[in-house]
Design brief:
The mean pLDDT is 89. This protein is globular. The chain is of the alpha+beta class. Helices cover 27% and strands 33% of the residues.
Length: 70
């Protein structure tokens, strides 16, 4: 890891924060090598050095699979 152990794209976090602003407040908690993102206090994604990973449930997982997303 680099200085401070941060290896995620802060610009991506800012983009997500702005994009979801109509839905609520996005906050971030740093973790080793990345960050956990919350929407109004509920975890919805993590950001790592290889991208944005959205939390899924059985219903949304099937939708992501149908769309060809990992």
């Amino acid at each position: 890891a680099g200085a401070g152990g941060m290896s995620f794209d802060q610009g991506l976090v800012e983009w997500v924060t702005e994009a979801l602003e109509p839905m609520g407040r996005v906050t971030m908690r740093r973790m080793m090598g990345g960050a956990t993102l919350y929407l109004d206090g509920t975890v919805f994604a993590i950001v790592t050095d290889d991208g944005l990973w959205l939390k899924a449930d059985a219903q949304s997982d099937a939708l992501w699979d149908d769309a060809g997303c990992p």
